[in-house]
Design a protein that fits this description.
It comes from Grallaria varia (variegated antpitta). The protein is mainly alpha-helical and 180 residues long. Helices cover 62% and strands 0% of the residues. The relative contact order is 0.16.
Amino acid sequence: MLSLLYQEGPSTKGIFRRSGSAKTFKELKEKLDSGIEVDLACESIFVTASLFKDFLRNIPGSILSSQLCDKWVSVLDQGNNEEKIKSIQRLIEQLPRANVVLLRYIFGVLHGIEMRSEENQMNAFNLAICIAPSLLWPPVSSTPDIESEFIKKISSLVQFLIQNCCRIFGDEITSLFGEI
């Protein structure tokens, strides 16, 4: 899934913003959930992007860990960019190894898409708006106003992560997928 998004995302206008066919999404999700192998290369990249966001939303406690929610949300309130990056790296160290590996690939994909934002109209801000709610959510539900404010903060955080992913995760993030 990530490999396809890495390959096709940078040249796809509105990736993560546009939805694929709801019927196809539902059918593919049912197949994937039941363990049936599917060839996503034969499907719309928008369906694949929707499936990926759905996968992220179904990670128990979120990939960034709802237990660290308050710390993630307050990262951008810290001093300069260097201090923010160090704080983010410390938070990443507290995540399970599987989450960290997946985050590196996710931000490798998002970075690749953002690098061609003139073509696909998905700059770091637009990508963050689309993907942030799938990466972190509060451990308890809240009022719509508080939830809206939270989404704004987490979107700003994800935008910062995309813009600084090479400094946060290392320059090798740009070559995680090798020569595809």
